[in-house]
Specification:
Blueprint (H helix, E strand, L loop, with lengths): L2 H5 L5 E8 L2 E8 L2 E8 L11 H15 L6 H7 L3 H4 L3 H11 L7 E2 H7 L6 H9 L12 E2 L1 H6 L20 H15 L1
Parallel strand pairs: 4-5
Antiparallel strand pairs: 1-2, 2-3
């Protein structure tokens, strides 16, 4: 849904960049709050000077990229209070919250997520929701995969951890593989 459809205006948005192992992360600020996080392959040496709301997100993301740990309950609560998530349908919020509650290093199938959210037949819907996740890493959609893909995971072959697409884009699949392996290294 477009900004205009939701809010009756096209608000000003600001972009902020921080380093990531594959290049960078771009954080979008809108309405004075975090609106979106996008991976990008453009290298970035240091984070942009950013307002406090984005600087806090930078700190959380930096911590995750250094040593992934389960999200603190108060951080998840604050995340789900952001306008971008409060406007989502309840099932979408449930899917995203399920991933926040999934331990680092664990990968659930789309069917498992659908069942945990009370709609076992909604596998395709889960996949679509995850492809449009506005906050990858904060909402770890790399902890979800097709059941057949999970069966092929092999730590001796990192390529087996790459999905066909991640966040709806084929070029991001290697980032998802990196995130999955990064979490496994810390979960061991």
């Amino acid at each position: 849904m477009s900004f205009t459809a939701l809010y009756g205006e096209d608000p000003e948005r600001s972009l902020w960049r921080m380093p990531a192992p594959w290049g960078s992360l771009i954080l979008t600020e809108c309405f004075g709050t975090l609106w979106q996080i996008e991976p990008d392959f453009t290298p970035c040496e240091t984070p942009d000077a950013a307002p406090e709301v984005i600087a806090r997100a930078f700190a959380v993301l930096e911590g995750y990229l250094t040593a992934p740990a389960p999200a603190a309950a108060h951080d998840v609560t604050r995340l789900f209070e952001l306008p971008r998530l409060t406007n989502l349908p309840e099932f979408s919020r449930s899917v995203l919250r399920t991933l926040c509650e999934t331990a680092p290093g664990t990968v659930l199938s789309y069917a498992e997520i659908a069942a945990k959210c009370g709609r076992p037949g909604a596998v395709a819907a889960v996949s679509r929701i995850l492809a449009s996740n506005p906050f990858p890493l904060l909402i770890p959609c790399h902890r979800a995969a097709a059941a057949g893909d999970i069966k092929r995971f092999d730590v001796t072959d990192p390529a087996t951890f790459a999905p066909k697409t991640w966040l709806g884009q084929q070029e991001f699949s290697q980032i998802a593989a990196w995130l999955r392996l990064h979490e496994l290294a810390f979960a061991a």
